[in-house]
């Protein structure tokens, strides 16, 4: 780790919200218990109360003695099983923070609600962190992130996520790009791509403004990558913290070829959509199309190399699936894997 002071861009003014809050508060700790909290962990959830409890218990087991709070965001507005479980655990003293309900279904809507809640209900907030309801944080997760944030010259931090397959016979899929973390060593990185495991300084949210994530990505995914792309364009810097580790449960359906292929196509569509935003107009569209065609051509030798390296034809197909997904998006075809989150 480089021991130097962070060179954070000038502090932006407090963020003002033009619209009322879309979420409701289901449970919360006394305001006095939250007044001095600088670190808030956001946990979106949808119809996985048992897995959510495992996530919250992993947070309660964090080492290092750090004072932090949790915001659980229930994104299922009907039965609200996750909110009920989290409320009971909060009242039992497992964690402190808030349990909120964002009834408008959507991945980006849940994150927007969580980050807005953190900014408005924690006056001492310095950073938000995130973990999904199918993940468990290692005991040193929070400590590793906060130590990095205290020393590294960056504003956005990412950590490793190790897949744990429900079917042990499919563990070899951990080498597949859809399951593998983008980086493997701590230090500065060009950009982050996933909100599965992160720490983001408050200044980033204030500078980029609300809504933080573009809700047009609600059901395709990619709102996090779009957010990180805009953060990079705004001059913010990124850092990888390999020691800030999480484990993610992979149900059997995620080890099936159809799901993996759909994720590859989806990743391609997201990358092309973001590039078209960066390159507007007919000339920009042609530029993105040309890149997609070039990637399709290159996918053959790249796929062979990846397949030989991993000894898997399934993994070797990934580059071709990404290129095809990019081309399909030119015709408005995008795989909305988050339309039915309980089947994702």
């Amino acid at each position: 780790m480089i021991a130097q002071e962070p060179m954070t861009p000038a502090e932006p003014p407090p963020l003002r919200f033009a619209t009322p809050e879309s979420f409701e508060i289901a449970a919360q700790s006394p305001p006095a218990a939250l007044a001095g909290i600088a670190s808030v962990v956001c946990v979106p959830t949808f119809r996985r109360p048992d897995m959510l409890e495992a996530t919250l218990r992993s947070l309660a087991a964090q080492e290092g003695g750090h004072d932090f709070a949790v915001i659980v965001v229930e994104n299922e507005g009907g039965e609200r099983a996750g909110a009920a479980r989290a409320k009971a655990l909060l009242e039992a003293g497992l964690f402190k923070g808030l349990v909120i309900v964002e009834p408008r279904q959507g991945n980006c809507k849940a994150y927007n609600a969580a980050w807005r809640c953190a900014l408005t209900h924690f006056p001492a907030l310095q950073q938000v962190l995130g973990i999904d309801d199918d993940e468990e944080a290692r005991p040193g997760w929070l400590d590793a992130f906060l130590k990095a944030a205290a020393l590294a010259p960056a504003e956005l931090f990412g950590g490793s996520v190790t897949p744990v397959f429900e079917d042990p016979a499919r563990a070899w899929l951990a080498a597949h790009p859809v399951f593998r973390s983008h980086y493997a060593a701590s230090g500065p990185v060009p950009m982050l791509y996933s909100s599965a495991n992160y720490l983001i300084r408050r200044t980033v949210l204030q500078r980029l403004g609300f809504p933080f994530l573009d809700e047009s990505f609600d059901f395709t995914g990619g709102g996090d990558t779009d957010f990180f792309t805009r953060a990079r364009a705004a001059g913010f810097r990124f850092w990888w913290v390999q020691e800030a580790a999480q484990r993610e449960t992979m149900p059997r359906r995620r080890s099936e070829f159809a799901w993996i292929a759909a994720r590859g196509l989806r990743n391609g569509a997201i990358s092309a959509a973001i590039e078209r935003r960066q390159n507007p107009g007919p000339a920009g569209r042609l530029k993105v199309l040309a890149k997609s065609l070039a990637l399709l051509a290159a996918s053959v030798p790249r796929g062979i190399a990846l397949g030989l390296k991993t000894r898997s034809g399934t993994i070797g197909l990934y580059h071709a699936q990404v290129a095809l997904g990019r081309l399909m998006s030119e015709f408005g075809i995008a795989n909305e894997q988050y339309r039915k989150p309980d089947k994702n």
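Confidence is low (pLDDT under 50) at residues 1-8. The beta strands are 24-28, 39-45, 69-74, 97-101, 127-131, 135-137, 156-165, 187-189, 197-201, 238-250.
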